[in-house]
TrEMBL record:
Gene3D superfamilies, A to Z: 3.40.50.2300, Histidine kinase-like ATPase, C-terminal domain
GO MF annotation: an example: protein histidine kinase activity
Domain Histidine kinase: 1-103
Keywords: Kinase, Phosphoprotein, Transferase, Two-component regulatory system
Domain of life (superkingdom): Bacteria
Protein name (database record): Stage 0 sporulation protein A homolog
One record GO biological process: phosphorelay signal transduction system
């Protein structure tokens, strides 16, 4: 519930955030309601997919990889529960979580496959530039559980500084959010490519972006990034993209 409450507070500039809990003997119902900016209907349909974030003027000030809601949804499903959302733009949002109070004795609940079982990123060192602390923590957890070593920074300037620091631990790949304060991902990629670092020209830089327009793709490639990973994006596709560059299948 912490992530749901955190999101509610973050997107409610004025108004209230309400948490209510009830049960009917068979299941518990948790409602997190806010009077924040709300969201469009089309976004409500995909909000629980990984790497999804509404591309609105207000949303752009709350940047991130968009993993939080997907993680919440997976955890609720693991508990044999359900999560839903109702929202009206400029009016507010209500998330409803329903969880069973009693386990079904005849039901065998399989353990969720761990990232290690799905893919092996063992030994891969990743520099991740992400300004949203919660989403950064979730993404780092997903990558480290798959075996990767992750260094996180909060903006493009810090990414450039870390990459060029001769005393810093070297990295094999850079995961770069496009919209960040201080310095965005595009400018950071340009500076990395223009530097005198021995790996400046061949270090893979993967861009995370909510935009899917062709001109945006051209801007990303022109900045020196290797590939655009459009949101929403499955976690498995992220893993596959990382592996493909590390193994040299894509250049």
């Amino acid at each position: 519930m912490t992530n749901l409450l955190s999101n509610a507070v973050k997107f409610t500039i004025h108004g209230t955030v309400t948490l209510s809990v009830s049960d009917d003997g068979d299941k518990i119902r948790i409602l997190v309601k806010d009077t924040g900016c709300g969201m469009k209907k089309e976004f409500q349909e995909i909000i629980f997919q990984p790497f999804t974030q509404e591309d609105t003027t207000y949303g752009r000030t709350q940047t991130g990889t968009g993993l939080g809601m997907a993680i919440i949804s997976e955890l609720v499903q693991l508990l044999n529960g359900a999560i839903s959302v109702q929202s009206i733009p400029d009016k507010g949002t209500t998330f409803t979580v329903e969880l069973p109070l009693h386990a079904d004795a005849d039901q065998n609940v399989p353990a969720a496959p761990s990232p290690q079982q799905q893919v092996d990123l063992g030994g891969i060192r990743i520099l991740m530039a992400e300004d949203n602390a919660i989403n950064s923590m979730i993404a780092e957890e997903l990558l480290t559980q798959a075996g990767a070593q992750v260094k996180t920074v909060e903006n493009g300037r810090q990414a450039v500084d870390y990459f060029l620091d001769p005393d810093a631990e070297p990295v094999d790949l850079i995961l770069m959010d496009i919209r960040m304060p201080v310095m965005d991902g595009l400018e950071a990629a340009r500076r990395i490519r223009a530097s005198a670092h021995p790996r400046a020209k061949d270090i893979p830089i993967l861009a995370l972006t909510a935009n899917g327009l062709e001109e945006d793709n051209k801007e990303i490639l022109d900045a020196g990034m290797n590939k655009r990973l459009s949101k929403p994006l499955s976690v498995s596709l992220l893993y596959e993209s990382i592996l493909s560059y590390i193994k040299g299948k894509e250049r």
